[in-house]
Description:
Elements: E1 2-3, H1 6-26, E2 32-38, H2 42-57, E3 61-67, H3 73-85, E4 91-94, H4 104-110, H5 122-130, H6 138-149, E5 158-162, H7 169-177, E6 182-186, H8 193-197, E7 202-205, E8 223-226, E9 230-232, E10 235-237, H9 242-245, E11 251-252, H10 259-284
Parallel strand pairs: 1-11, 2-3, 2-4, 5-6, 5-7, 7-8, 8-11
Antiparallel strand pairs: 9-10
Helix pairs in contact: 1-10, 2-10, 6-7, 6-10
Bound molecules: nicotinamide-adenine-dinucleotide.
Nicotinamide-adenine-dinucleotide (NAD) is lined by residues 139, 162-165, 167-169, 186-188, 190, 193, 206-209, 212, 227-230, 259-260, 263.
Binding site for NADP(+): 163-165
Domain Tetrahydrofolate dehydrogenase/cyclohydrolase catalytic: 4-118
GO biological process, one term: methionine biosynthetic process
Amino acid sequence: MELLNGKEISGQKREELSAEIKMLKEDGITPGLAVILVGDHPASRSYVLSKQRTCKELGMHSILTELPDTISEDELLSAIETFNRDHDVDGILVQLPLPSHISERKVIEAIAPHKDVDGFHPLNAGKLATGEPTFVPCTPLGILEMLKTKDISIRGKQVVVVGRSNIVGKPVGQLLLSEDATVTYCHSKTENLAAHTKQADILIAAAGRAKLVSKEMVKEGAIVIDVGMNKVDGKLCGDVDFEAVKEVAGMITPVPGGVGPMTITMLMNNTVLSAKRRKAFKGAV
Ligand code: NAD
């Protein structure tokens, strides 16, 4: 079994990004990411701080707007609009989840699609589904980057995705379909989950259920990507029973240190991509 070390792979990617950022800066463009945090959810705060830290480490411009959870939907929408119009901001991210009185759909749709570095806007989701170039959501993109860096062949392989959310399950399946995988989606209503997962050459667990994937559900030699982030007795653990599954898997991601670091790195990647488009636009005028 080989460990798919997300920290190591994302470290290499960050070095590449750092060089690109340096070049952009020489051309007078500093990639900028605006993050909006509503309320004081501890996990959200820690994600946001680590996104900000990474921006700083890479020499990017980062803005954090913290808003109380009593804010109205209209006030949040107007904060987004300010960043839509700000030429120094290449990417806008509103940390989810939001308080229940605010519509996530309206908020996501308010972000200008060309600054939607999370890739959640329906226009970008539609482009991914139709195979057009777009901002791909960061976790799926991080998974693809890991597979490519490790020269894992995707074409013709049986990929099984456990989970069908709009931010992980659905887009990762679409992304790997566009790389010519044969994709099966499983979800909470799937009957006989193990019969599907056992077929997987590449198994992606994104259900948010601790240790859902046991050794018996994994084919010998399979590549196992664990997206899950669950807190059990105060400890972070994935959707895969790591200790048991590593006995049968060919390669496996740990939690923490697997998909998580890749996600943040691909957020930086998408922001740099947006800044490059700004540069191309600037050059064209
Ligand atoms: P979600 O709750 O929106 O979706 C979970 C999906 O899993 C649903 O489609 C549901 O049908 C399916 N599911 C639930 N129970 C199941 C079961 N018993 N069998 C089969 N399918 C089942 O969650 P999400 O936002 O997609 O996130 C999934 C997990 O990934 C969470 O633990 C989340 O914290 C984690 N996550 C990690 C990263 C990262 O960077 N590592 C990023 C995003 C999400």
